[in-house]
Amino acid sequence: MPTGINIxxxxxxxxFAPYLAEAFHEFIADSTVHSRxxxxxxxxxxxxxxxxxxxxxxxxxxxxxxxxxxxxSATTKMRSEAYDVLQMPDxxxxxxVGPELLLSHPQSELWLSRETVDSLVETFESGPDALSASxxxxxxxxxxxxxxxxxxxxxxxxxxxxADHLSELRNRLERLAIEPINPQPQAPPVVNxxxxxxxxxxxxxxxxxxxxxxIGRDITxxxxxxxxxxxxxxxxxxxxxxSDSENHTVLNTREVRKxxxxxxxxxxxxxxxxxxxGRIRTVFASNNSxxxxxxxxxxxxxxxxxxxxxxxxxxxxxxxxxxxxxDHTDDxxxxxxxxxxxxVALNELESDAVV
Length: 355
Hints:
Blueprint: E1 5-7, E2 10-12, H1 17-30, E3 39-40, E4 43-44, E5 46-49, E6 53-57, E7 60-64, H2 66-82, E8 86-88, E9 92-97, E10 100-105, E11 108-113, H3 114-126, E12 139-144, E13 147-152, E14 158-161, H4 163-172, E15 190-193, E16 196-199, H5 200-214, E17 222-225, E18 230-236, E19 239-243, E20 248-251, H6 253-267, E21 273-277, E22 280-287, E23 290-295, E24 298-303, E25 313-314, E26 317-318, E27 324-328, E28 333-337, E29 343-346, H7 348-352
Antiparallel strand pairs: 1-2, 3-4, 5-6, 6-7, 8-9, 9-10, 10-11, 12-13, 13-14, 15-16, 17-18, 18-19, 19-20, 21-22, 22-23, 23-24, 25-26, 27-28, 28-29
Helix pairs in contact: 1-2, 3-4, 5-6
């Protein structure tokens, strides 16, 4: 499933939501956190503080100040409630995502269908003879001593569940959707600039730098890194150098002017608007079918007929527009695409630009 938690350049599994929520709450209250390295799905998340809150995961590190912590505390809470994320004894984390259940453990992560969860509970309660065809071939189940050992034959990873875990699985069966969740919504357009992929999140900043270069002004190098793309820009003796995660190109002054016009022509129909709040940059784009809201890898599409002031949700069950769910806090309007897990937090100024 595509769900995850984006925090600037860091992207982690939604299974880390309980640990992040605890760290955010601790930092907001005391401006510091106790250093720790929780693990889920065989991966570690470093949490510490040095005046800011420091997060490190899979070779990416971010330093968050108080306002950024409040922002990501809100989006993490939104995901936790929407997916009914629960941390249990033995560091087992459960989450309901449409018709599937995420079962995460410090050394493993399994996605189980509703039918598999049902069969797993029945097997535990009735014994191995109750094992049904709904158990996938890659999942081996062993029962003994009041516990169930699940082994993923594809990876060799395993998780040991006790009676309280199985009881929670049983309770979640009714909340697992019977029908598949909506397909992934359309993604915002990406502009191709001489082989470089320019995402809308960075388009206006890039255009501004190109305009400065074209008239001979000094430019500030750009290095954008999000969970879904990267973009670098700098000046060199050969011209304006651009690169993304895969390609590199150099533009001379004449080429810069040509590509400026082409990029403007691509994005003009989308009516881009950008609002910056510290390090949190929010970009809005729209067409006849709806609006995109972009924040550092979180790309949320809001259909044209969705009223964000009235859309609501209950845990794990999107309502109203179905794909889009929204909530209000004292500080933010939170908007989330349920099938992707992408979630944005908008303050009053930002929400006025989209509702």
